[in-house]
Design a protein that fits this description.
single chain; 3 helices; two-stranded antiparallel ribbon
Length: 123
């Protein structure tokens, strides 16, 4: 895979969603960076990967992720927190854009939830 270039971050109205368990699927929607077109994608643990792998392979940098406000640089560089960040690529049929959705599925006091760190338009 080639190096990933971030074009811009998509503005989200909501970034936290409840889930039943780790293997739940989230029907997530957001609007295209050009506006107007609503995209829908299913996010899940099974169809996503650890963001740390892209960072280790040099395909994306923690600095570029921090510059696009995915998380603070110290959090992205913290090896104890690296398991928190998952990603999934999405290329909708409605437009010629490619997106990377960065999220986490987490349990807190027996409640599960999805947290969307960001949706990035990439090339």
């Amino acid at each position: 895979m080639n190096k990933i270039s971030i074009i811009k971050k998509v503005q989200l109205g909501k970034n936290s969603f409840s889930a039943e368990n780790l293997y739940s699927k989230l029907n997530f929607s957001f609007y295209c960076v050009n506006g107007g077109i609503k995209h829908e994608v299913i996010l899940s643990f099974e169809t996503s990967f650890f963001l740390n792998e892209l960072i280790k392979n040099g395909q994306i940098t923690t600095e570029s992720l921090a510059n696009h406000q995915i998380s603070k640089l110290e959090n992205l560089n913290n090896t104890e927190r690296s398991f928190l960040y998952r990603y999934q690529f999405f290329q909708p049929k409605e437009c010629n854009k490619c997106y990377m959705i960065i999220f986490n599925i987490d349990e807190y006091r027996e409640y599960w939830g999805f947290y969307i760190y960001g949706v990035l338009e990439i090339e």
